[in-house]
Amino acid sequence: MTADQSAAPPYVQFKDVQKSYDGRHLVVKTLNLAISKGEFLTLLGPSGSGKTTTLMMLAGFEVPTHGDIFLAGEAIGKVPPNKRGIGMVFQNYMLFPHMTVEENLAFPLEVRGIDKATMAAKIKRALDMVSLASFGARKPAQLSGGQQQRVAVARALVFEPRLVLMDEPLGSLDKQLREQMQYEIKHLHENLGITVVYVTHDQSEALTMSDRIAVFNDGVIQQLSTPADLYEAPVNSFVAHFIGENNKLPGKVTAQSNGVCRVALTDGTEVGALAVNVAGIGAMTTLSIRPERVEVNPTAPEIANRISGTIEEIIYLGDHLRAFIRAGGTDSFVIKSPNRTRSHHLAKGQNVVLGWKTEDCRALDP
Amino acid sequence: MKQWKLLGATAVAAVLAVSYASAQQKSITVVSWGGAYTKSQVEAYHKPFIAKTGIQIKSEDYDGNVAPIKAQVQTNKVTWDVVDVELADAMRMCDEGLLEKINPKSLLAGADGKPAAEDFIKGTLHDCGVATIIWSTVYAYDASKFSGAKPSTMADFFDTKKFPGKRGVRKVPKNNLEFALMADGVPAADVYKVMKTKEGVERAFKKLDTIKNDVVWWTAGAQPPQLLGDGQVVMTTAYNGRIFDAALKDNKPFTIVWDGQIWDIDLWVLPKGSSNKDAAMEFLKFSTSTQALADQAKWIAYAPARTSSIPLVAKYNDGKTDMAPHMPTAPANFKNAVQNDFVFWADKQDELTKQFNAWLAK
Amino acid sequence: MTTLGGLAPSKPSSSDTLVAADGTPLVRKLAQVTRRARLKAFLLVLPLLLFIVVVFVLPIAQMLWLSVNEPTIRQDLPRTTARLATWDRQELPGEDVFAALVEDLKDARERQAVGRIGAMMNHVYSGARSVFVGAGRRTGSLAAPYSKALLDLDATWGDPRLWIMIQSMSQHTTSIHYLNAVDRTLDERGNITPVPENQRIHIWIFWRTLWMSALITCMCLPLGYPVAYLLASLPLRTSNLLMICVLLPFWTALLVRITAWIAILQSDGVLLSSLAALGFVDMDTAKRPQLVYNMTGTLVAMVHVLLPSMILPLYSVMKTIPPSYARAARSLGATSLTTFRRIYFPQTIPGIAAGALLVFILSVGYYITPALLGGKDGVLISNFIALHVESSLNWSLAAALGGLLLMATLILYWLFNKIVGIDSLKMG
């Protein structure tokens, strides 16, 4: 995707966009974002981080306080929402309750003055696409939540929009249905080649579906990268902590060279880490280590960093065990141990040695 | 023996004390039409009566709607002890058995010693009611609205060309049909004879048609002086006492046209079944005495119903207005006058009200 | 029969009835258990139920009963009633009926009831009062043959219509008051016939009442709709303030509001005086347009009084419509006008229907405003009901008019239920 970006001009572009509701606080602080055609981009962040406001500015329901938004090279700041050609799926579906499924789907076509025959064909295709061909005559209230959401998606796609926005579309579905819908939406995106901007606060949803994820916090994009990069190589401790499970160890940088640094933990142990976001020797830092990258009582010599600790608590989770360990200046160092035979000798109160490779440990902002 | 006497005296004293005490607590409700009229009754009847007997009087106003009397008597919960009603209502309720009978012999004799039956003007004593006043429905105009000729006859009230401007008229057929016929040239004495025929009623409505678009309708007796005072109308039908009162009090140039006046009486009636019947009768006797009736004219321009009261009518309570010329019964005012025919109205009110409303609505 | 309830594995039983653990059929057991709960619930509503029955249902029932059954004539003229029951209305009743009437009048005179009979008959036969009272006064001097004696006294006794009316009024269920209420009466052959044209008023007033109610409803809707929309869409603090403004008239005494309208609209009132000062209307109060004591005044004041009844149901419906619907429609390409027309407006229809029904039904039965502001052409049917209750004392006719009004309201209610569904009625 990054290759496309440099080659062709971006399909959607935010240029220095700012938004304030009250004139005192910026909800979105100087946003610059480029989205390529055909991309599935997720805006991820806690509530109040500015992700929904960004989406609403793109849809045309909010006006940027400063800056411009471009869609296919055209500034759309002054274009009303109905002229932007952007399909939108809402959290609570927002199917018009007084219309049947077919009428809901016909609505965007009717207001575009499309002839009856074409319209019928398009509606049929859209309903087939979401496997609801036989539900056309029903009212929304007669459908289940998942079916309503499929209709909402079909309605947002039926008029072949230039861009599809989804605002937490799966938020009101139960877990199982939500996962199923994630795949369906992902497949629709792949099959139709549409550009999707998706808003969610659920990181697993974002990881599952997206080409790229923009992590929002406090009105600023903290990191914009592919799901794997986001998980493997978070650039700051907010992202590291927001995406996936993470151990945070505070410490002080004692040496740094060639992108690697030595960090003294609060209990005096010194370990090695990748110097991703540190201010220099003597500065405070937070080490980030994924639980599944930690070995218990390691034997392999390439596992350079070792600290000792005591198991405080073990939780049995079926396929793996999770242990909270007092080590490295914290009493809740989490490790995940696959449920293999040899894991069973772990017990509460046991002293263990924890080890990890230097490249699995990232020194980030304190 | 002496002891017995003492005991007897004590008993009598006790009884007297009890009855005095109960008289002290006793209270009757007297219902009348409100405004200046009720005030005249309060001044001439209520205050002296309370001073004399110690019986308290609760004065209530009503709008002439006698339905509550029917309801009170039928449900046996009479709260109105004495009510001031018009003759037609008194007769009708008497026939329906809603009122106490009143024996003229029980009324006080005149100041000159004449028994009540002879002293009261003919037609003012009835089986169930005793008249207190003679009042009159007339029309009055605001003199400041007419620079040249002033209205002087009933026909002038219906002449919107000669005297342009809105007219106030009560929203009932009663009196208005009579006025219309007199304005159309029917002599006062023949009014009801003509009205008994279908053609006569048609003729009256036809005459009313000529002012229909210039009418502001009123429903309560207090409205006409207000309508005149506010300039909403240039002339209005009204009760003579109200106009007199307003003209004097507010110093307004309201002038009554007595031509074609329809005079009527107001009576006290006692709804049947009151628990205060005795006190109510006491009040009725007191308030229809020669002096009380004469005193009332000091407060309002209605004529007393007793002949013996007439010479006692003197000046208004301002001390300078001579009341005699303002009485409906004054010779100059009584030339072309007709007495309201309650029998006619008792028979025809339903039908004519319907016709009047139909006429009004179209 | 095994009655082990939950412990026994359910096996196909010979009978279809399931039984509870104690052996009673499950259906009956369930009824027993729920009956106690239902009884408790019933006891909770019992006070209100009794209250409604005593102060609402019974009086209405009594009123409706009065419209078909006025017992005065039956009770005061018992002999005449009995004789007339079989009269065929072909020719004048026979001597026996006249004799019975004279007997009845004699009794009635002793009871002072002649006036009551006369007044009652006068409601259906104009002039009957003096005919009866006249006959009642002379019962002592009347001698057989009574038919001739009465006819000599007053020729009206020879009018078959009078006898038809006596017969109608003495029946246990009579339609005469309802006929009267729709401007019909019985002719001398007992056929239903319209009353003389110059006395036809009720049907006309009924139509005008319905028409004015419709007009008031139609005026309330465009005035109330935008306000209700604002109430539903403004931020809470602002909308609360606006809600207070809407409810203020609700909290103000009706008489105060009506008096205020008189002060504003009368010919030397605030409005016309201001306009006169600006030169739009004549300075002479007598030449200014009449805005009060007529239909205009009634309309203006009633729209004002009833506006909250339109706004509140609309508001409660609009409050439940999320603004995202409009956003969805806009994002699908609809202009704001199309969005309103196709998406927002249809969803407010239950509120419109509820508000319109409420305003319409309230205005159909409104009394005090038209009574005070109505003047000559602004009065409604309720004012006629009041007239017959208060001044003509024709309670049966008032009851019949009220019965017709009740029927009209019920029909409306039924129509509403048919078209919109009563369950969509939401208030406040």
The gross shape of chain C turns out to be flat
Largest interface: B-C, 40 and 42 residues
Q: Mean of residue pLDDT of chain C?
A: 85
Tell the overall outline of chain A: elongated
The biggest sheet of chain C amounts to: 2 strands, antiparallel
> N-to-C SSE series of chain A?
HEEEHEEEHHHEHEHEEHHEEEEEEEEEE
Number of helices of chain A: 9
What does this structure look like?
The complex is a heterotrimer of chains A (366), B (362) and C (428). By secondary structure, chain A is of the alpha+beta class. Chain A contains nine helices and 20 strands. The longest helix of chain A has 18 residues, at 175-192. Chain A starts with a helix and ends with a strand. Mean pLDDT of chain A is 89; it is low at 1-6. Chain B is α/β, with parallel strands linked by helices and 362 residues long. Chain B folds into two domains: 2-134 and 266-312, D-Maltodextrin-Binding Protein, domain 2; 137-264 and 338-361, Periplasmic binding protein-like II (D-Maltodextrin-Binding Protein, domain 2), CATH 3.40.190.10. Chain B contains 14 helices and ten strands. Chain B has helices at residues 2-25, 35-53, 67-74, 87-95, 116-119, 154-157, 176-183, 191-195, 198-209, 223-230, 240-249, 277-287, 290-296, 342-361, and strands at residues 27-32, 56-61, 82-86, 129-142, 167-170, 215-218, 235-239, 254-269, 303-304, 337-339. In chain B, α2 (35-53) runs antiparallel to α13 (290-296), α4 packs across α14 and α7 crosses α9 (198-209). Chain B is globular, with a radius of gyration of 23 Å. Chain B starts with a helix and ends with a helix. Residues 15-23 of chain B have low confidence and may be disordered. Chain C is mainly α and 428 residues long. Chain C folds into three domains: 1-7 and 15-61, no CATH class; 72-199, no CATH class; 202-424, MetI-like fold (Orthogonal Bundle), CATH 1.10.3720.10. In chain C, 67% of the residues lie in helices and 1% in strands. Chain C has 19 helices and two strands. Chain C has a two-stranded antiparallel ribbon. Mean pLDDT of chain C is 85; it is low at 1-14. The interface between B and C is large, with 40 and 42 residues.
